[in-house]
Design brief:
This protein has about 190 residues and is an alpha+beta fold. About 20% of the residues lie in helices and about 40% in strands.
Length: about 190
């Protein structure tokens, strides 16, 4: 393994730059090349009202204990409702759920209008048609830059479907990939 020490210069579009010398647009453009899964974080809020927000940053953190996390913008009004609930369910959206994703990401919209769902074992909304879900209690919240990192302890989880997930890539939603096994299944009819 090669290790690097000391300040390094990075080359972007033929221009030498010192570390950290880039604007927000360049940062977003480059990071847009890293596809992310689209996840609806749901919780039951005050008065039993279902709450939801869309994130593209859900990830596993630890196997022992079973921890997962997501990042949420500090300006999110929904995050406060989820944190107040003390728990959440991470719903991995399926490739055909872009409309649901857009509705749940819209400010001021009735995010659950026309959406089928049921209660998880913890009482959080599990959305119909998702690839899978993870029911969590909130373990820790850390402020990082302009976001909060929310770490949850997985309590219940389930795969709901073998369909491909909804991905966000280069500023757009879609089903941009197929695993080798899925491709072989499609070609051979297995």
């Amino acid at each position: 393994m090669e290790t690097v020490s000391g300040p390094q210069q990075h080359q972007s579009e033929g221009v030498d730059r010192e570390p950290g010398e880039f604007d927000a647009r360049s940062f977003r453009d480059v990071l847009g090349n890293f596809p992310t899964s689209v996840v609806a974080i749901t919780a039951t809020g005050e008065g039993g009202r279902p709450e939801a927000m869309i994130v593209g940053s859900f990830t596993s953190v630890s196997l022992d204990p079973p921890l997962v996390s997501f990042l949420a913008d500090r300006s999110s009004t929904t995050l406060g409702k989820i944190l107040a609930a003390g728990q959440y369910c991470a719903n991995a959206l399926a490739a055909d759920q872009e409309g649901l994703c857009r509705r749940m990401a819209a400010r001021g919209a009735d995010r659950f209008a026309g959406t089928g769902w049921r209660h998880s074992p913890l009482g959080n909304p599990v959305l119909d048609g998702v690839v899978g879900w993870v029911d969590c209690t909130i373990e820790k919240v850390v402020e990082l830059g302009d976001h909060y990192l929310v770490v949850g302890r997985a309590v219940h989880l389930r795969t709901e479907s073998e369909t491909t997930p909804l991905l966000f890539f280069r500023g757009d939603y879609g089903d941009y990939f197929s695993t080798t096994s899925l491709l072989l299944d499609r070609l051979t009819g297995w």
